[in-house]
Specification:
Number of strands: 8
Largest sheet: 4 strands, mixed
Number of helices: 11
Structural class: alpha+beta
Distance between the termini: 52 Å
Helix content: 40-55%
Strand content: 5-15%
Radius of gyration: 21 Å
Strand order of the largest sheet: 1-4-5-8
């Protein structure tokens, strides 16, 4: 099957399945809208799984389809083009699963991959802490082994997306007393529904609470729920983050295209498009989005064998977060005074969400300042300041 035929297959499947009770999910559940229809979106994950659309790039031995990169990319683009909702299983499918496939034991793969692939188990990410956000190496959450070998945890994680909708969380914790920085960390797989874990929602200025604080007070997980060896947590954590900038980044850009089109539609409807300055900013946004796309494609080119992180990967987060924040400002300028109060109009409300949520884009997953340090030190070889 060639790429065009595959794209048509995806489009046809979406047209016949994203209907009926799922129709309300179109273009919902993305960043800033994660609280939309969580139960129905979990059912949608199972619908996707039944159609064979989960684990497209996984090896067949692990239940995937082992599709080439071009077809994985085609799926993400056609999925968003058809209005596919934000994937509530994203963290499990695109972060946890590839990490287990690469570094997990056969027993861990057999235990966890089927639940992810079938849309039965959902995952949260336990990295950031109140005093260790962009500086992940400063984490203080502790873990230790009891006499029976089971691991216990004490500490707090924060900005934990969809923890209240998840069954499991992967946690980076300090397993060697007195260790500092990247040393002495371990990577644990922890069930969330247990005594010793409390999940507290964090209400955002969007009015929603898709993020949480997760408190561990003697929480427990089994002895074999550690990925890698004790003390190898940093290595595993960085390997997982490497999967974060995979083919789904192009799907993210398709969401951006949809948001830009909303801006254009509103500008035409309310007359803002007659303003030459607004038209120029819309054109600039479109040009910037094309730059993001082609940089994303460069990131996905076949690896040449170099162990050095490619420059296009180093600049990606800084580039898209600033572009998206500027799009949010453009959206509010296009809406005008109508944007000063919460709107019942669906298009205006969604653009207000873009504005509010995009304010965080240059902070989470590494602040702009951290990203510039990474570019300078790892990309340009400049000395650490």
């Amino acid at each position: 099957m060639n790429e065009q035929q595959f794209r048509q297959e995806v489009a046809d499947w979406m047209a016949t399945h994203l209907v009926g009770r799922f129709a309300c999910l179109k273009h919902r559940g993305g960043p800033g809208d994660e609280e939309a229809f969580p139960a129905l979106r979990k059912e949608w994950e199972q619908e996707l799984a039944a159609g064979g659309w989960v684990g497209l790039g996984w090896p067949k031995a692990h239940g995937g389809r082992d599709l080439p990169l071009a077809l994985q990319l085609a799926f993400h683009e056609e999925y968003v083009r058809a209005g596919g909702p934000g994937r509530i299983g994203h963290i499990g499918e695109t972060l946890m699963a590839p990490t287990l496939i690469a570094l997990g034991t056969p027993a861990q793969q057999a235990r966890f991959l089927p639940g992810i692939r079938e849309g039965r188990e959902y995952w949260a990410q336990g990295y950031s802490e109140p005093g260790a956000g962009s500086d992940l190496a400063a984490i203080t959450t502790r873990c230790w082994q009891d006499e029976d070998g089971r691991w216990r945890l004490q500490g707090q994680k924060v900005w934990t997306s969809l923890a209240h909708e998840s069954e499991w969380i992967f946690v980076v914790a300090r397993s060697t007393p007195g260790s500092v920085g990247r040393e002495g960390l371990s990577f644990l797989l922890v069930p969330l529904d247990q005594p010793g874990i409390e999940i507290h929602p964090i209400r955002q200025m969007t009015g929603e609470a898709e993020f949480n604080s997760v408190f561990f007070d003697g929480a427990v997980t089994e002895a074999d729920c550690i990925v890698g060896k004790p003390g190898e947590g940093w290595k595993v954590a960085m390997a997982l983050l490497g999967f974060e900038r995979g083919v789904s980044t192009l799907g993210q850009q398709m969401h951006f295209i949809h948001e830009l089109q909303l801006v254009i539609d509103v500008a035409r409807a309310n007359g803002a498009a007659r303003d030459p300055a607004i038209r120029q900013r819309i054109a600039d946004a479109w040009v910037g989005l094309q730059g993001l796309r082609y940089n994303g494609l460069r990131m996905l080119e076949e690896d040449t064998g170099s162990t050095k992180v490619r420059p296009e990967a180093l600049i990606y987060k800084y580039a898209w977060s600033n572009w998206h924040r500027e799009l949010g400002q453009l959206a509010m300028d296009v809406i005008g005074v109508a944007g000063d109060v919460r709107s019942d109009d669906d298009a205006l409300r969604r653009l207000q969400q873009v504005f509010f949520f995009s304010r965080a884009d240059t902070i989470y997953a590494g602040t702009n300042e951290i990203q510039l340090n990474i570019i300078a030190e790892r990309g340009l070889g400049m000395p650490r300041g």
